[in-house]
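Lecture notes, structural biology module. Today: joint structure prediction for complexes of three components.
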Amino acid sequence: MARLDNESPDSLLLQMGPSHPAMHGTIRIRLELDGERILRSDVEVGYLHRGFEKTCENRTYFNLLIYTDRLNYVSPLINNVGYALTLEKLMGLQVPERAQFIRVLMSELSRISDHLTCLAAMAMECGAFTVFLYNMKAREFIWDVIEATTGARMTTSYIRVGGVRADLHPDYPSAVRKAVGETRKVLKDVHGLLDKNKIFLDRTRDIAVMTPENAIAFGWTGPCLRSTGVAYDVRKAFPYLVYDRLSFDIPVGDRGDNFDRYMVRMREMEQSLRIVEQCLGSLPATPATRMADDLEPAEAILAARTKRPRGGIRLSPNLEGSEKAVYRDILAGDHRSIVPPKEETYASIEGLISHFQFFMKGHGLRPPRGEVYSSVEGGNGELGFYLVSDGSDRPYRLHLRAPCFHVVAALEELIRGRLIADVIPTFGSMNMIGGELDR
Amino acid sequence: MTSMPGHFVTTRFNHILGWARKFSLFHYPYVTACCGMEYMSTACAHFDIDRFGAGMTRFSPRQSDLLLVVGTVTQKLAPVLKTVYDQMTEPKWVIAFGACAVSGGIYDNYAVVQGIDQIIPVDVFIPGCPPRPEMVLDGLLKLQEKIQKQEQDWRWKKRKP
Amino acid sequence: MEEKKTLGELRKRFGGNILEASAPFGDETAVIRKDALLQIAEFLRNPPFAFTMLLDLTCVDYPGRPDRFEMVYHLFSLARSERIRVKLALPEGAAVASLTGLWKNADWLEREAFDMFGVRFEGHPDLRRLFMDEGFDGHPLRKDYPLRKRQPRIPPRT
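The predicted structure, tokenised, for the full assembly:
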């Protein structure tokens, strides 16, 4: 290729190819080596370019929610929230308070699972396989909580424009407390295993140091920027949802090396656990009626032919959490932006018509014309959505500001002059997620 | 029907060979995208893949016999996948893990290969976006059944008219 | 208000080069003339405005307009927690100044814009494709590129 021709005949061209054992997915680093020292490198991305932006131009706003899950796939709920917030900014919707707390709870659980995965992979590549197993164990408990509410462990598509799809499941306090307790135990163990571990320190301390000015010039945000000492967090700078009411700290590092990136993520997990506990405590109440016992759905539909049924209708179990009684607390908006509750859909003609129109091609979610940029604090940094709408039911252009794109853009500079073995912890601490980097 | 003298021996040998192969699969996790997270969950303590004998992860195609294609394969990555498959030695099996590997998944556009069976032969398809670890283990068990039933190329059997 | 101040200062300093300055949905936006990009970017980067971070650089394709592409730059000032959007219209085939001298991530961002839209950047040290492979013909995110037009590198089996 044009860029990495051998300059000196003594150097060796080595490829750390797209199928990478370091389980980061697919990135290709071409190295020019002098022995083990890296003279120059060329980072090639795009092996997971799945055409997210072009696909979004061909899907309705509602349907493209599933594609946003697969962007930063270790913290999918945060991407969902980011996208929903962008649309709500464009449409001027105000989300109910309970839904905001639920979104924050889910986002923070996703963030914890993101950091757990990142550090697990990083430690495993440095040889600490135990940390990988412990982190995955904690992640399972968190995913159990997410699964009981949303129905899926990972790619949930749980957030809706105007709120969330369903309320939290009935035993969420005990499940969340168990997940938090297990995560705290695991974090304590990992601190004990890695913090003062000579091998880990030798591989990560003072390796790939980034100065704050350089980080800002590269557009770094998130834990990587905070490890250099700059305390920028979108949740504090541009508070969204209910983050301004919750108390949490922003951990910063001082040296900007790999160890600081690891430490910032560990501390952020503790802060996220604090936020989760606060959300548990301050979730606004919801009407107690759940799963009413009155009418079977088939009877209700039959009865609705003559007269609108007045009592509650027993919905199927997979619709638990989205009954009419709790609808007001989980979703905001009128028939143009949300689906009516199932009791309305099946027992009244207006409900049926608005349900139908929501999904019809050309109708449904149609934000006003205009463009908007809105961002949330993703697992890697500022996750921004730039949306250009032309008034129809499909976006004209949806662009993602991917945080790890800018972080990985600095990889070449960070590994220049270092040994091959330094590439692994450096790359691991950057938390490159292919779905977000390549879109 | 006259039976050749070696049949009992060859079928027993096939049986033992199948048993040995299916319980000692060395897999090469060709991880690309979101399914990688479920792969990690399957491989770890909660949904242990090691209890089925398939726990040895070998990050080299020359040392592995099961190619586990996890996640979306893009057009840019396709030649790499073919190279990796060609580098594996016989006997080798391929599992397409996840909807994107099976058929392109939710991505039907300019950049994604619509199923890896357009590039390499696949033995087991595991659908799901991403598939639950239990589904992955079920797919692995089906592959193990398939391996058990595979017959070897015994020359004297083939010469029968 | 803080926000209007930046746009107001821009108008005062650059006058005719600022075609439009508004804040739709709360996002300050300035539409500028293509040739003034470098000066305006440098002006915004220096103190007192200190937009030290280039958040994002992207392009939107409007095939119906005479100036087909619209470049969109999002700048961010950490010290003042302020964002601004700078847009400029670009005819097809024209090149726009590269911002690699001012912000380091402009390198990859411009490569992505070139790959997806075919926009050329003057002064970019190494403008080549980022996501698609080198032999790819066309620019996928343009409106006239069909969604499903695949260009396989190896022929399908059988």
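Point to remember: The radius of gyration of chain B is 17 Å.
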